[in-house]
Sequence to fold (170 residues):
Amino acid sequence: MTTFNSTNRSEEGIKSDISKSQKKRELIELRYIVEDLIHHTNRDFRSLGVEAITSAVLLARGTTDTTVIKRQIQYITKLIHKSEPEVRNRFMDLIEQQNVEKKYQKILRWRRDLLNNDNETFSLIMTDHPSIDRQHLRQLIRNASIEKTRGQHGSACKKLFRFLIELDAY
Fold:
């Protein structure tokens, strides 16, 4: 007759609360973030404070061989996943901050293009968000363009910017 230690079962239960599929999804998401960190980000990732991650990212950035880069991405993902929760949280905060900056830059580009009468940007916004009030957006653009030609930077530009921020939030 086999008896189980109750403390071992409770520890196993705590560790296995997350399903295997959920763990895989989290690792895949983390892997995409690491790929973005290696290929597109110029952000200072050294603030994470983990020398192994820093050196692995620098090695991946310094090579052009795709198989080496793929292995490095897997290695960095494993390092971050197995690191302490505070390191993972700092990493996720760094990525979130980059995403906010990218969205801000996108909205600034939209506003600049709309004020320069770029119909392609307007049509792109309309296709991405078909439920918005087209007439209201045109009016905001017109008022902001008038302010721009007068050399003023007032409420119309701010209203257009706020509208685009709200639009991008959906």
Residues 1-14 have pLDDT under 50 and may be disordered. The CA atoms of residues 17 and 43 lie 34 Å apart. The two ends are 59 Å apart (CA to CA). Residues 85-115 form the longest helix (31 residues).
